[in-house]
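Is zinc ion placement plausible here? Inputs below.
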Amino acid sequence: MRKTRKSCREKKRYASQAAANRRAVELNRKGVRIKPYWCPVCGGWHMTHRSPTAVLNEAFVEAGLAPVYV
Ligand SMILES: [Zn+2]
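Reply from A.M.:
I modeled the complex. Tokens:
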């Protein structure tokens, strides 16, 4: 069951980790500190400037799952 949430609609979504990684490498070369993370809410990949762990845990909680690590 795929859901979306506000943050999913507002963010660019990448279909695969490879696509997200390529974009992250490009941006990091330009000095943008950004990391891709997998989103359990929509099943796609997004980018974040924040700690990917914190974002991932928020997404897990939103999806009704327990946070995996803190
Ligand atoms: Zn998402």
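Short version: The mean pLDDT is 84.
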